[in-house]
Automatic annotation (TrEMBL):
Annotated organism of origin: Mustela putorius furo (European domestic ferret)
Gene for this chain: FKBP10
Lineage of source species: Eukaryota, Metazoa, Chordata, Craniata, Vertebrata
Limits of the PPIase FKBP-type domain: 62-150, 174-262, 286-374, 399-486
Intracellular or extracellular location(s): Endoplasmic reticulum
GO molecular function term, any single one: calcium ion binding
Protein name: peptidylprolyl isomerase
Amino acid sequence: MFPAVSPSHTFPRLPLLQLLLLLVQAVGRGLGRASPAGGPLEDVVIERYHIPRTCPREVQMGDFVRYHYNGTFEDGKKFDSSYDRSTLVAIVVGVGRLITGMDRGLMGMCVNERRRLIVPPHLGYGSIGVAGLIPPDATLYFDVVLLDVWNKADTVQVSTLLHPTHCPRTVQDSDFVRYHYNGTLLDGTAFDTSYSRDGTYDTYVGSGWLIKGMDQGLLGMCPGERRKIIIPPFLAYGEKGYGTVIPPQASLVFHVLLIDVHNPKDTVQLETLELPPGCVRRAVAGDFMRYHYNGSLMDGTPFDSSYSRNHTYNTYVGQGYIIPGMDQGLQGACIGERRRITIPPHLAYGENGTGDKIPGSAVLIFDVHIIDFHNPADPVEIKILSPPPETCNETAKPGDFVRYHYNCSLLDGTKLFSSHDYGDPQEATLGANKVIEGLDTGLQGMCVGERRQLVVPPHLAHGESGARGVPGSAVLLFEVELVSREEGLPTGYLFVWHEDPPVNLFEGLDLNKDGEVPPEEFSTFIKAQVSEGKGRLMPGQDPEKTIADMFQNQDRNQDGKITVEELKLKSDEDQERVHEEL
């Protein structure tokens, strides 16, 4: 695009021949060449030997035209040609500035039309002629091609070639626009194109940076719209033209594609595309969010997508980790919401853009799907879905062995795991670091038969790294039902007595009374105590392994048997340890 210049309404100096034409018009007319019927021609003979397919306007009285011509006599001898001077004739028709025959011959002509005009003497130079150039009573032949036509009353002509289905805003004065264009003269001669420079033309509208006609032609345009804009020369480059590519008094035709538009005063624009029901929490600054997005320019050209990487974009909101416009646009969103965020360049990548996909001064549009968000200070959220069927006096606590069913999913509904897939309930000892911290917390305080919903933030789940099947920084949603609960043992105990242990424990263990207890006797005795309800092993563990661990603890010299000196209850050991510390 060329810069604007001050237009002028004066006409260029006429060539010598045209000055002579004006002078001779007042001279008396001679008789013309014989008509085909044998008499003299009474009027101009017009042969339209090339007519363009479309003719948006025809030359009328008072129009300004630009045309090329060759002038010859009947014998074909040339007496004048605008081509020889490499200069178009630029003049107003029908006001006496041309010989009458030319004035009449140009009327009704279309741009790019070619005509042959036969001008009889009385409509040309009459009985006097032009000394040394045109003899008296000469019939003149002109081959004319019209290249431009306009009128002082013309305005900018705008034709919409393609209108987008969605138009978020239109161009107004003081807006900054980015557009592509092809520029031609009215006859189709190309003089400039933004496409050859592999970049849009970027400028303010209505601020004097453009020719007046383009300022007017862009107003009201939508991003993605295509327009044809025809600008008369007095709203373009006027009588001076521009360089060697735009001649004086030239009408200009621009085919324009608007890429985007914004105003320096614009803020982030939000459009809710889908809002899930029951939104109880909205994102605020400081939250950590996981979301998917498709990013495009205002004309729909995509530049990035999280879906192409099959991974959410994870970041803190309102902390400066992302462009300011996105920081603003994500706040207030609900989990599961889909929203469109339109970000002006001063809140995105500014005048310089980034990489090879986001040009300078580009408006960015993000279609965002919020997967989840949390705050690093979030606890486990617990919601009771159904209370236990019977009155509950005892609830699950650390150390208890519990069996429970669960369904685990992401907050967007993506199913991850379910105990129902395995048929049997999940088993765990609470407080023993056997399950993620948030699930452990959520199971505590439950009654058998109770159902709960647990929302577990990632710092109480699988953290930033995630786990197999669980994305990093994912908030987890559990639906749990406590199936059973067994009282746990104190920390460090593998077996506890329900009542006081036997007075002489070693004699009870030494079944064959040989003064030593091998593993078989130890195992038989402990199983008998459990069977008779006198004691219980740590729940949730393999009994054989637990009993073997108990034996190992008592076989202090590791000789495969326990003696009376080696045998000690854990309570006695703990008491001795206290005395030692004291």
